[in-house]
Design brief:
This protein is of the alpha/beta class and about 280 residues long. The protein folds into 2 domains: about 5-140 and about 270-280, Nucleotidyltransferase, domain 5, CATH 3.30.420.40; about 140-265, Nucleotidyltransferase, domain 5, CATH 3.30.420.40. The chain is built from 9 helices and 13 strands. The chain has helices spanning about 5-15, 75-95, 110-125, 135-145, 180-190, 195-200, 205-225, 250-255, 270-275, and strands at about 15-20, 35-40, 45-50, 60-65, 70, 75, 100-105, 130-135, 150-155, 160-165, 165-175, 235-240, 260. The strands form 3 sheets. A 6-stranded mixed sheet has the order 1-4-3-2-7-8, with helices on both faces. Strands 11-10-9-12-13 form a 5-stranded mixed sheet, sandwiched between helices. Strands 5-6 form a two-stranded antiparallel ribbon. Helix 5 crosses helix 6. The longest helix is centred in the C-terminal third of the chain and has 22 residues, at about 205-225. The chain starts with a helix and ends in an 8-residue tail after the last helix. Bound molecules: adenosine-5'-triphosphate and magnesium ion. Adenosine-5'-triphosphate (ATP) binds near residues 156, 179, 200 and 242.
Amino acid sequence: MQSLALLETVNRAAELFHWVADPEPAPFDNPPQGRLKVGVDLGTAYLTVAVLDEQDQPVTGEYQFAQVARDGLVVDFVGAIDLVRSMKDRIERRIGRELTHAASGYPPGVPGVEVQATSHVVEAAGMICTGLIDEPTAANALVKLENGVIVDVGGGTTGIAVVENGQVVYTADEATGGTHFSLVIAGAHNIPFEEAETLKIDPSRQPVLFPVIKPVLEKVASIVARHIEGYQVPEIALVGGSSAFYRAAEVIEEYTGIPTWVPPHPALVTPIGMAMNNNPEDYA
Ligand SMILES: Nc1ncnc2c1ncn2[C@@H]1O[C@H](COP(=O)(O)OP(=O)(O)OP(=O)(O)O)[C@@H](O)[C@H]1O
Ligand SMILES: [Mg+2]
């Protein structure tokens, strides 16, 4: 079940986080006090920087569409560093404080060298990387399932974490996500990818697009079903931007037979979870 704390946090983050292409918001009247916890999510589709206070409450954040990572792996280093640095600069101007440390993440199953690449981007952008956590586990820092499965349907991949008694006992990641939704729409309507992407994220267009996206959602469901075989799963929490698609939870629930829900603003959950992992005790 969604907790009130989760709902409050994502709703607050949606108000405070800023889409980079929008006009820059006014600076804060006073800098936030105390230690700041920062999460940098180098997603396949969205680059997100989340800033929380010591109580894990959202302070501010930025996100933008960027193609610097593919299936969770950084493919454009220079681009990724530039974008993270400019997001960091804008946030610092806004809050009147420097961001010195950050945590980041990686899709489960990614080789160690690639995981390290993520921390190099964070460090080259001017922050000490205090830790890296796999994405669905990061999401559960905020979702706080005791027993169930976190499914992070992002842009490039679907990440899965099985949680038993509050502990992540199994993780997996497979290459199906929102980029595939957009490709299917582009193919079906014979339009460029960018146009399909814009069409897809418009909630008023989603009911009409549903018939072409349903098989992709069923593919996601089949991936989930395969990975959770043998586990007792009372509920599925869907996070990641693509979970916001019309009737996504319904399709997963119907296919798996397991109660499934999506919090509001699901794209913000994993980046916030990464920031929650930016622990003061890691600041040596
Ligand atoms: N309202 C919406 N409805 C459907 N899809 C959406 C919506 N908003 C965003 N998306 C899609 O969500 C994806 C981005 O989500 P998210 O930020 O979780 O992915 P990511 O972290 O960049 O990717 P990954 O985790 O696979 O590396 C994009 O494919 C985007 O088109
Ligand atoms: Mg992601």
